[in-house]
Structures are given as C-alpha cells and as structure tokens.
Amino acid sequence: MLYPMEKRRREEEEEEEENKGVLSEQHKCVYKGKSVSLTTFYRIARNTMNMCFNKEPAASEVEQEYWRIVEQRDCHVAVHYGKVDTNTHGSGFPVGKSEPFSKHGWNLTVLPNNSGSILRHLGAVPGVTIPWLNIGMVFSTSCWSRDQNRLPYIDYLHTGADCIWYSVPAEEKTKLDKVVHRLLQANGTPGLEMLERNVMISPEVLSREGIRVHRTVQQSGQFVVCFPGTFVSKVCCGYSVSETVHFATPQWMNLGYETAKDLKCRRIAKPFSMEKLLYQIATAEAKRDNGVLLSTISTPLKDLRNVEMRQRQELYEAGLLSSARYGTPDNNQSPSDGRKKPRKWLALESSERRCQTCQHLCYLSMVVQENENVVFCLECALDYVEKYKSCRGLKMMYRYDEEQINSLVNQVCGKAMVKSSDNCNSPPGSGKAGAKRGARKRATVEVSLSRLSPSTPPPPSATHLPKNNTHLPKSTALVS
Ligand SMILES: [Zn+2]
C-alpha cells in the first residue's frame, strides 16, 4: 500500500508503537537517504527507468504499472525523491535583477509577495514563502497529504516527465476520515491523522468508497494549483524537476487561524507564527484602508486579542506580577509608554522562541523562567502555575501592551466593513468571537487567484518561463 520516498517530518510519530497495524515498523517504506548531486540522481533515475520499462512509457502506462506493483505487493521497488531548498541552492526561475521575468508575477520566487497574496506580510520563510524544488524519478511518490496550515500552493513543472496528481476536495474530509480509518484499521486514530503518516491509497479504492477523487496529468511547462485543505498525492512518470511555493488569498485567513489553533492543541510545531502574520497584516493594511481585507481579519484578530488578554489576566491573578517588554514593536507603532526594554532580553528580539511544551511560536507574549532559559506560551504557563501552585522565577514577556493591542483591533474594526452589530470592544474572554470557517467557495478563490497576477503574461517566446504561459488561466490545472 505504501511506496513513497521522502521521509517526512513526522518520523517520531511513526516510531511510536501506538499503531501496530499497517503502519508498524515492518511496513514503513520511507527512509531518509543521503545527499547526492543532480547528475548522480539523474543517472539513477535513468537506470531505474530502463529497469522498469523497455521504452519511454506514457503517463498512463506508468500509472498502470505503479498501481499494479502497489496493489499486488509481490515485488519490492525502491526509488528516490529529492527536496531542495531554493534559498540555498537556487530557484529554477530567473532571479537576477537584469534577467527577463525575474520580477514577473508568475515567477514563483515572486508570486507569494504579489499584492493579492497576504503571505507577503510574512517575510521569507523556507518551505512557505521561499519555493522548494522537487526532484523525482519514475514512481517517485508524494503520499496523500494536505498542507499542514491548509495553505494553498502552486507547483510548476520545470522539466522532465509528466506528473500524475490525484486530489480529494477539502469538502470530502469527513467522509475521507471515516473511509481511511476503516481501510487502515486505525484503532481509534482519526483517519485524517493516519494520512499524515505517508500513506498511499489507490484513487480507485477511494472512489469505490464514495470519495470524490480528481486526477490530472501535469506536463512540463504547466502549473498546478492546490486549493486550501485539498488532499493531494502525486506520482512522477520519470525524471522531473518541479518547483512549489505557498501563497494565500484573504479567504484563507479564517481557515488558517482555526488550523493554527488545532496544531497548537495537538502540540505540532508550525513553520511560522499565525499571530505574527495576523498582526503584521493588521498593522500594514490598517494604514491602507483596505476594507475588504480588514473585515476578513477582524474576527480572528479580535479572537486573538480576547484570548491573549484573558490569559494575561489569569496569569496576573495567579500571582505572576513580574513582566517586561521585549522585541521591537512594528515600526509604525511606536511604543506609547516609551519604557525602556530590559537590556538582557535584547537577544530575544531577533529570535523566535517556541513554547517548550506545545511548540507554539510565541509572538505577542511568552512566560520565561529566566534561570532555566525556559519559554512557555501563556496557555502552558497557566498549566504550569496550576500544577506547581507557584509563579516563582517566572516572568511575563510581552511585545505589545494591552493598550496597543486594543488600539490596533479598534483601528482594524473601524475601517473594516463590518456589521454594526459587531462589537470590537467586547471584554476579553466574554466575546467568543468564534472565528468561524467561512464558506470557501471555489469560485471565490478562483477570482482571487487571477488577481495574483499583477501584470499581463509575457510573450510566448519567453525563455525560462512556462510554455503555456500565455494561456495561464486555462492551462493551469486546478486541483480540487
Ligand atoms: Zn505552549
């Protein structure tokens, strides 16, 4: 059932003994390999292809053989798959200032920072806003997965053989959860969590179980766009090099915010701070009077403020009286109290600290145990204080004080196109602002996607750029 190559982040989870079923140690098929040069990889890819096929196969032939091997389980086939950070090894897109299309909106090194993408407020984060290259060979597989942050992403096949993509729309998640749980005899682990562990299930099997599965073949020079929360798996039909990066339209915000909360509950480390993203969008966009965007972020921002203020209050009431400011407030928000930052915490300004308990990336505030160099998020600090009945040695570190946070929330709500019944001044804790997942209609996202391109596509003679670039909206394979 499993024949993947890339070892994912969740190695530890896989090593847990909790699942003795199909995901036990003896069934584990993904192993981390060593670093090889592209030339070596290409040679292995060519040899593997020659071993499996007499002549260059069509995508459908590779697909048929792939599922025959996976389903019959009578022979073992090992192939390789590589993931390369373009920040250190360079992108396949032109990046030199004088190179043509180095600033083009469909250049994936540029796309996350286009005006329609709210991720431009995040800065450079490898694997999120900095693209990565995927190097594949015949049968190289990306197992069923959806992005951890439910971010949409875009993949461009630079060169090489076709890639077959299978996708299950986000709306099918409840059904998929049940089906996967049953198929994998998951013993209580939710099916969707099982899918986080390198599992490949035939689209035919899923389809027979009533799941809506789509398939598309991506050719060299084509983009594939994956919508937020879509479940995707991919099989390479030969040596190929593609490049992927995330972006986000404002419609993603509520889903992203709820997902970040869920990851925190499950103590899973996230690659970036949702609080920071939200706060930076708010500070930057409040100046620009972008009513539509501000109303999109006002609900999660209020929820963030309410949770933050409630937890600060609870810690204060529990006896945590020692506090200090840290970090540099956003350049447009000069600290109103003009208090000096404590010198010894200057080191915290540039580094992002994670809660040692839940892995949460602390942004607005954290509780530190100065002598032990231990960091807690407010929620875990509350648990700690509850458990040990003491705040000794603990200190609250905050980036913004209550007044500053309230002022930003009021500024955003004031400019947002909100209903008059929406109360921005609800007292902390009382307003379960409930950042509900908005109905994410596909049509809405498609409209926004087209806004990502700030300029018209280049002429078809463009070097380095997609062959089908002139027909982008049509040739873009929409997954889900
Ligand atoms: Zn925590």
From TrEMBL:
Gene3D superfamilies referenced in this protein's UniProt entry, alphabetically: Cupin (2.60.120.650)
Organism, as annotated: Alosa alosa (allis shad)
Broad class of where this protein is predominantly found: nucleus
Source organism, top-level taxon: Eukaryota
Domain JmjC, first and last residues per copy: 100-264
Keywords: Chromatin regulator, Developmental protein, Differentiation, Nucleus, Repressor, Transcription, Transcription regulation
SUPFAM superfamilies noted in UniProt: Clavaminate synthase-like (SSF51197)
Cellular location(s): Nucleus
GO BP annotations, alphabetical order: cell differentiation; chromatin remodeling; regulation of gene expression
Positions of the UniProt region annotated as Disordered: 1-24, 420-480
Protein name as annotated: Protein Jumonji
Biased amino acid composition, Basic and acidic residues: 1-11
Bias type Polar residues, positions: 466-480
